[in-house]
Design goal:
The protein is mainly α. It contains 9 helices and no strands. Helices cover 78% and strands 0% of the residues. The radius of gyration is 19 Å and the shape is globular.
Length: 189
């Protein structure tokens, strides 16, 4: 089974790797580490600001997947998106646990400097943005997720999704224009 990491579409590869991980095939994990570790370390390092902590975070994400391969569902997200979300969450958790008091003080200062705002307005905005994102194709949502929510560069997102960097850039412009239109239509009475 294991052995080959390339030359199949992403959803087929993700399903195959999920099955191989469940079967305890180490080659599947090696394949994932080889393919995704560099961009994941970059994501974690942007959050932790420390290369060795970032590498530990990424290693923990892969170890977690190896121990509990059933936590990944290829029907819900691509392996790239799932790993990036896990990595980003783990990096944020690491930073929080290392300096939670300092972070709370920073957050309090930010909230006070900006004012509290209307909770209903914030909830409304989240709902509107979520609805606009739901109108995107899965690939477009993944691209936006990797660049805006996971914090990847165009190049890293393109590499993760297996598309040319120029395509990623033009797609982001098209997606943002689409979202702007969706949001302005929702905002007008």
């Amino acid at each position: 089974m294991g052995g080959h990491c390339h030359h199949e579409d992403r959803s087929t590869a993700d399903r195959r790797i999920a099955i191989e991980l469940l079967a305890g095939e180490k080659q599947a994990l090696r394949c994932l580490v080889q393919r995704y570790a560099p961009p994941l370390v970059a994501v974690a390092q942007r959050i932790t600001l420390d290369r060795s902590i970032a590498e530990d975070v990424v290693q923990d994400v892969f170890v977690g997947l190896w121990r509990r391969p059933d936590t990944y569902d290829p029907e819900r997200a691509s392996m790239a998106t799932w790993l990036h979300i896990r990595c980003r969450t783990a990096a944020i958790d690491t930073v929080r646990s290392r300096s939670s008091r300092e972070r709370r003080e920073q957050l309090a200062a930010t909230v006070h400097s900006r004012g509290y705002g209307d909770q209903y307005q914030i909830a409304d905005t989240v709902l509107v943005v979520g609805t606009a994102l739901a109108t995107l194709s899965l690939t477009d949502r993944e691209l936006i997720g990797l660049t805006f929510f996971a914090g990847l560069s165009y190049r890293a997102a393109a590499q993760s999704l297996g598309i040319p960097e120029g395509t990623a850039k033009s797609s982001i412009r098209r997606i943002l224009e689409h979202l702007r239109q969706q949001l302005s239509e929702t905002a007008s009475p």
